[in-house]
Known about the structure:
Elements: H1 2-55, E1 58-59, E2 91-95, E3 99-103, E4 115-117, H2 127-131, E5 141-145, E6 155-162, E7 192-199, E8 209-210, E9 213-214, H3 234-241, E10 242-245, E11 251-252, E12 254-258, E13 265-270, E14 272-283, E15 285-286, E16 303-305, E17 328-335, E18 340-352, E19 357-365, E20 371-377, H4 378-385, E21 407-409, E22 414-416, E23 418-425, H5 427-440, E24 450-453, E25 469-470, E26 476-480, E27 495-497, E28 499-500, E29 512-515, E30 529-532, E31 543-544, E32 547-548, E33 551-558, E34 565-585, E35 592-602
Parallel strand pairs: 28-29
Antiparallel strand pairs: 1-2, 2-6, 3-4, 3-5, 6-7, 7-10, 8-9, 11-34, 12-13, 14-34, 15-16, 16-22, 17-18, 17-34, 18-19, 19-20, 21-22, 23-33, 24-30, 25-33, 26-27, 26-33, 29-30, 31-32, 34-35
Amino acid sequence: MIELLVVIAITTxxxxxxxxxxxxxxxxxxRANAMVMSQDTARMTLEMVSRELGExxxxxxNSNSPIVFPCENPNDTTPALAACPQGLYGKVDLILxxxxxxxxxxxxxxxRPRDYDRGEEAWPICPECLAAGIPVGPEDVEAKPKQPLTxxxxxxxxxxxxxxxxxxxSVIIYPSPGYRDWPESGAPINGFILYRAExxxxxxxxxxxxxxxxxxxxxxxxxxxDPAPDGxxxxxxxxxxxxxxxxxxxxxxxxxKLDETETLIDxxxxxxxxxxxxxxxxxxSPAYTSDSSSExxxxxxxxxxxxxxxxxxxxxxxxxxxxxxxxSVSLIRYNEATGxxxxxxxxxxxxxxxxxDFDLWLDRYDAAGSRTGTILNISQLxxxxxxxxxxxxxxxxxxxxxxxxxxxxxxxxxxxxxxxxSDVISQDDIAAMNANVRANWAGGMxxxxxxxxxxxxxxxxxxxxxxxxxxxxxxxxxxxxMTPGLFHDPSLVRLVRYxxxxxxxxxxxxxxxxxxxxxxxxxxxxxxxxxFSPAPDExxxxxxxxxxxxxxxxYKFQLNRDGDVVVANYTTKTLMTVTMGIRFYDRNSxxxxxxxxxxxxRVRNLLR
Length: 608
C-alpha cells in the first residue's frame, strides 16, 4: 500500500511537471491570439475611419461638443453622466462627397447611361439593367464621387456608444474589487463600441430643433427618451441608423476615473478619440515679399497664410452654453523707440448678446503683457466691408482710426491686411489742374504737372499711428477719354480706363497716370500723389457725354508695416488626429488587452 501511494505521488508530480508547461503554453497562445485580434481590430477600424475623414468635404468642429456615457457606479447607482470635459472627442460629424453609382455589368443595355443617383439606398443596383430584365447584383455596381466634387446632403457621424442603448438594458457593471479594468470578471455586460451613422440633419425623428435650427450638439442624442414625431423615442431611431464599426462583444472603448472614495465615477474618457489637431505659435507666411511689376521690390505683404486652414468654429447649438471659436491671432511690431519687437496686438472673443454671436476684437498690449487699449472690432469691420455704402474711401474706420487692422478668414487660414479705398476727382479739381498748367506754361517749357493727392492721404497726423499705404498695383483709374479731337466735342467723350506709367519712366501721356506708392518713404509724405499728362495740349476733358467729367479711383490700402510678424493659435480640421484605443478582453482569463494606435489624417477635400 505504501509503495502504491508513493508511485501515485511520484506520478502526480511527474504529470504536473509535464502538463504545467503545456497549460502555460496554451495560456500564452490564447493571450497572444487575443493581443493579435485586438491589434488587427484597431488597425482595420483606424484605416476605415481615416479613409473617410481624408475624403470629407466638411467636418464639424467637435472641440466643445461632448457626449454622454451612461455608466453604473461601483455602489450600484446608475446615473447618466452629464457631458463633462472628459467626454470630448467621442464623436465627429462630417460630410462626404456626393456619390453616384456606376454599373460595370458587361450586359448593360447598349446606349443607356451607366451612372445613376444613389438615392436613399445604401447600395442600389442598376435600374437600367433591372428595366431590361438583365441579371444584376450588388457586385456589378460601384460607388464613385460625383465630378466635380459636390457635398452630400447627409451627415456621417462616428461616435462611441453603448452596445445596447435601450434605457432598460443593463449598463456597464463595475465589480469590486477590480472595477477599473474588470481583471477578474472579463468583458463588461454592455460595453461601449464604435458606431457609424448616416443621416439627414433635418430629420426631426433623429435631430431636435433649437431656435429653428438642427441641434447637432445634443450630448444625449443616443440615449434620449424624448418622443420623436414618428412616435418612437429618439434612442430607438438612432439605434436603427447607427451601424457598429468593428467587433461588438468582448471590447470596451472607455476608461473611467473614480472619486476619492472609489464608489462614484468622477469622469469618463473615450479611448477612441476623433479630434482636431491643435497648432500653437504658427508663424504665418507672407503671400509675397516683392512686386517688381508694380515698382515694389520690397512690397509689404497683405496676406499671411497659416500652415493649415479650416480653423475651429464656434458652438451655438446650446444657447445656454455658447462657446467661442478657439483660434487667436497676434501681431508683433517693431518699436522704433526701444529698438525691439515689443508692441503686441492680440485678438479676443466677446459675446454680443444683440447678435447672439461672438465678436472678435483686437487689443494692444505692452512688453509686460498688459492690455493698454482696444483697437477695433474685427467682426464689425468685416460686416462693414460687406456693406457697399460703408466700404471704400477709408470710411470703414471711424475716428480714432486704428494704427493696425486686419480681418481673419478661418476657412482658408488667412489674415488679410488690405482694405478697399476709393476717391473721386471732381470736375473742379480737373479744371484746377488744367488751369495750373495753362497759367504756368510759357516759352515752350513744361510747367507744373497735373497732380492730385488722394484724399485719404491728406492731413494725416503721424503721431496718431494711422499710416495707410496703397497696395501696389491695386488701383483702377477711370477718367474721360483724352484722345485728340474729342476735347471740343463733349458728346464724344466717355469714360475709359487709364494706364499706369512706371513712376521713374518719364511723364504720362494721354489716358495715362503715375501714382506714388511711397515704398521708400517712411514718413508717407509722397504716398497717394497721382500725376497726369503735363503737356499743355493734352488737357483732361472737363465735360463728357453725361455731364461734368470726373476721374474715379479705386484702390486697396494696408495698415501693416514692414517687419510685422503674425502668429496664430488654432485647431484645424484639415489635419485630424485619430486615436484608436481598443480594450479587448480575453474570455478565458478575463484579462484586458489594451491597444492604442494614432494617425494624423490630412483632409484633402475640406477647402474645395
